Amino acid sequence: MNRNRRRRNEDDNGWAEWGGYFEAKKSKLQEQFRETAATEVEKISDIFKGVAIIVNGLTNPSAEELKKLMAEHGGVFHIYQHSSTTHIVASNLPNVKISKLGSVPIVKPSWITDSITLGKLLDYRRYLLYTNQSTSQPKLDFPVVNRTAKTASDPDFLGEFYNNSRLHLIATLGAEFKQLVAELRDRPERHFPGREKLLEIPTRLNCFVPAPVIMHIDMDCFFVSVGLRTRPELRGQPVAVTHARRAQINANKEREEAVTMNLDRQPEMIEVQMIDGKSSMSEVASCSYEARKCGVKNGMFLGAAAKLCPDIKTIPYDFEGYKEVSMTLYKTIASYTLDIEAVSCDEMYVDITEIFRIFNLSVEDWARHIRAEIMSVTGCPCSTGFGANRLQARLATKKAKPAGSYYLRPDDVEAYMAEIALADLPGVGRATLQKLKGLGLETCGDVQVASLSVLQRELGSKAGETLLEQARGVDKKPLNFHHERKSVSAEINYGIRFKSLDECHNFLESLSNEVWNRLDEVKMRARCVSLKLMVRAADAPVETAKFLGHGICDSFSKSTTTNYVITDPKSIYKEAKSLYEKLHVDFAELRGMGIQLTKLEKIAPINPTLNKFLQKTPTKREQIPVVAVPKPTVTSSKPIPKEKSTRGRPKGGKKAPTSSKNSLSNFFKSKKENAKLQHKQVEIDFEVLKELPQDIRDEVIREYNLDVDLAKPKPQPAAEDKILVPTETKKRSHFEGLQWCQLRPILYAWMKSEKEPANVDVEMLGEHFKQLALDRQIDMLKIAFNFLHRTFGQLDCRWHRAYHAIVDLTQQGMLARYGSMLFVNKDFDCCFC
DNA sequence: ATCCTCCCCTAC
DNA sequence: TAAGGTAGGGGAGGAT
């Protein structure tokens, strides 16, 4: 991506390449495995003689593994498609790409694994990824036995499911647009070609718009509108986007029973009550306003929707179309401003204040202009709402829909709000609404006069407070243009019916790979893995009403904070598997599984100077001070001090391990040897020495013939030095297995990394930071290690580079003077200076 | 008092 | 048949 971006066209604000965004993602995958060194493999068979594959997109097994399998079994692996390529292997390939791939058959990866399992080349036609189920897909000339990955027991399931999941698409597209807005804003240049068009709008006098103005823009029934672009004959009719084509399915006794049994259990699900054993339980992803008039809602089962609206027409999904239209939408808005908070693929907030300030437009002029432009470039209608904050803008959109615009003027807010139904407030969902009903509250007007304490008692302190504010049209949350990820997860609660523990483990492994790929994609690393399970409720029927749905479930989750930074999918799988064992759930009862990663860290150093330095190959000079210290054998290491570390200790009443002593002792031995080697004098920091356990300290003093009188303290250290050394009141156990380090330079480096060095008052920041640490009662050592870890942890532990980066900064006058420093990583590699 | 874990809720 | 994902806010209750 980065490389592509540098090539960008200066005139288009980066858009030319944004169009190629998804393209770029795919080619990156290719780069990844091209870089993988060819591994020498032992030939096992000749199953794939004459077969030459390329891999397109994510697969399971991965491209790398397929490459190895092909080599082992006499096949050929191409990185790019070639005239001699015989098959394309893919788990999910957007329809739009198929036409470009020509006549080479596209097969599922299980063709390869199954062939190997059975020891012979199977007929690939049974493994074709595409069948002629949709007009946009290529027609196939031969009969196809469509082997669909129905349940999670199938290795192709994950990709196939995500390829067809609307919710997955919505979630991932939303996240991608958030990230893209952030990236665009990070570019130094600002270029808004769209604004020129505004000059053509005749300016009027007296169209003062009080600042700030927030615009909320939302496509009207997005999926339907995209689908109707090519189906004009359905305009004005009740239309729904669903997987199913018909609202009735063939009668099936078992299913009728299952439906009835589930109905008994879920009387609150109104739409479920409207269905019977013959109704389709395919969900309506989006429905037209004509369908909504009959009471049809998004998320409803098609069977239920058809009961309300017998004329309803169904149209299939068009995932590529959604991507394309949302891209165009964002592109259009961003040609006017980058003050955008992406909400989802079809919705965003835009701070429009600046545009009004510059162009002297009325809200109506602007709305008419932008809505017309969006209509013309996407072929889809949208609605816009304007207000002084995001809440007002959003409620205005509600009134504007469909295909309209509304400005909620500051003077009208109070009266307007009183009429708003509580259900229309963002954040008020099913559960909250029920609670409020219990209090006899239905409109914002009711809430306006309710007491805060009552609301808080019912909804919790935070939600109570926000609700009261919302009811008055107040929204203090500013738009967030720079979104930072706090978690990455992958979850599937459909098609989970394991027949063996192996199947369950395999699926968990696929999920681990998936979630790892997503983490890597956003260039982050994690330190916490959570596993979420959906388990059939004890009294729920084994057969669910919805085909392969999760039915009525209990959900459980468990997490583990690792004492290392996760740097591969195998670690995720290992942790997830162990969490699964701890939850004691029978694989046969599972109905859903998910893995979530939290405690995320950015993969790259933030400081550009440090970054640049770290990329350099170290010179000989730079390598000298690195001292390797043998790993302590007594205990496992903990890279970042954790209050809970003592809890994780062996419970058998063992004494706390003495790793600290051992490694310190070792450390000084190595230090001495190293000094001899270099014929250099050894410097030992007084404060470090003071903190050593008595016996080691004595040893060090003896070893080095030090002239130190610990009883007579050395000159009073500067104020900030005092806090650098953990005091005796701090529990030593926090730092078991860790070494001391001089903190000031590190903290300065940290602070510098977030603000550019120029014009930063180091002393002031130091004070500020100290206060922060004291206020929050965080150990300075913990902060320092967090920093070190976050910045350098993934760089193959090149601590010497970290050190020299800091020295470098110091020499440039960018850091304060530093004293002796000791850096330690989780493997007890040390560098000292 | 504050943090952490395991939930629940909400939005698209 | 059908494709019930994902991220963030926040609260209860236990641990420290």
From TrEMBL:
Entry keyword annotation includes Transferase: yes
Segments passing through the bilayer: none
GO annotation, cellular component aspect: nucleus
Domain BRCT: 43-129
Keyword set, alphabetical order: DNA damage, DNA repair, DNA synthesis, DNA-binding, Magnesium, Metal-binding, Nucleotidyltransferase, Nucleus, Transferase
Family assignment from sequence similarity: Belongs to the DNA polymerase type-Y family.
The protein's name: DNA repair protein REV1
GO molecular function, one term: DNA-directed DNA polymerase activity
Keyword NAD in record: no
Naturally occurring in which organism (per UniProt): Asbolus verrucosus
